[in-house]
Amino acid sequence: MSNWKLINKTYLYDGTFNGFLTLVFDCYCTKTLPQKIFPEMEYFSNFLDTPIFIETDFEKSKRVFYGIEKNIGYTTLYNTYYAFLSNEKEKEIFLLKYLCNGFEFGPEINNRLTISYVFKVMNMKKRSFGECHRLKGLLRFQEVGRNLYYASIHPDNNIIEPLGQHFINRLPNQNFIIHDKTRNVCLLYNGKEYKIVDSTNLKIPNISEEEQKYQELWKLFFKTISISERKNPRCQMQYMPKKYWKDLIEEP
Questions:
Q1: What is the pLDDT of residue 93?
Q2: What is the dihedral of CA 82, 86, 90, 95, to 10 degrees?
């Protein structure tokens, strides 16, 4: 990337993965690297920055998406997606450098962990993927209506979409809501398609009477099989961190 030019500009985008790939397209075509990149909703204007909004272009993002898969490999595309879901600050700059360098080196870029931004991307991907994997086993659905189930989560990273995809594959005919209370968004699935919406004004029904009975039975079962003498909180928190306990039905 020696022939790339660092410009004293701040790029803004809509915060979506397609929006970020559009930004990558524009930077790659002009061979320029902005000083900063922010999702538009997280940017606070100041007189030191010269912000430029990059409008999402699905044709451009599509070209970058398939360009990554073809020229840098599926693994790089996978790493990019999960790293993008990270709550890491300045993740866009790290990912932009990772991808632009990747188009030069090809799949070999993933082995160059001595490069700071490559190492950073791998760590971001690891944290997001790990949290998503953990929540696949910890998420608890509750019946809140006829054939409608609800689950709340408080993840560090923005992993509601891949988590939702997992349960869509597991429960393709089930209507459900996954509520990310950290970001106030919900993934809604109606048995055919899904969408992610703002949950600020969304009213979640109370759990059904039948669900209440099952929860009481589950708590009783959980308490009955537990052996107090063998309780190991440290080991328990290693596999089920305490920050997730608030969304569990049982009491660890």
A1: 95
A2: 0
- Comparing CA positions, the residue from 250, 251, 128, 145 lying closest to residue 203 is 145
Confidence at residue 1, expressed as pLDDT on a 0 to 100 scale: 61
- pLDDT tens per residue across span 171-219: 999 999 999 999 999 999 999 999 999 988 888 888 888 899 988 998 8
Spatial distance between the Cα atoms of 23 and 33, rounded to a whole number of angstroms:
10
Q: How far apart (Å, rounded) are the C-alpha atoms in residues 52 and 68?
A: 25
As a whole number, mean pLDDT of residues 82-97 equals: 96
C-beta of residue 15 within 8 angstroms of C-beta of residue 42: yes
The strand pair at 175-180 and 185-189 is best described as antiparallel
Cβ-proximal residues to 78 (8 Å cutoff; 6+ apart), any chain: 125
* pLDDT at site 33: 92
Q: Which two tokens stand for residue 71?
A: 């020229």
Q: Residue 163 CA to chain centroid, in angstroms? A: 8
User: Which stretches within the chain are classed as H helix?
Assistant: 17-30, 58-71, 74-84, 91-105, 116-138, 160-170, 209-225, 233-239
DSSP 235: H
Report the amino acid identity of residue 225. I
Q: Would you state the pLDDT for residue 8?
A: 87
pTM over 0.85: yes
In angstroms, the CA 200 to CA 221 distance is 35
The mean per-residue pLDDT over the stretch 12-24 comes to 96
Smallest Cα–Cα separation from 121: which of 75, 155, 154? Answer: 75
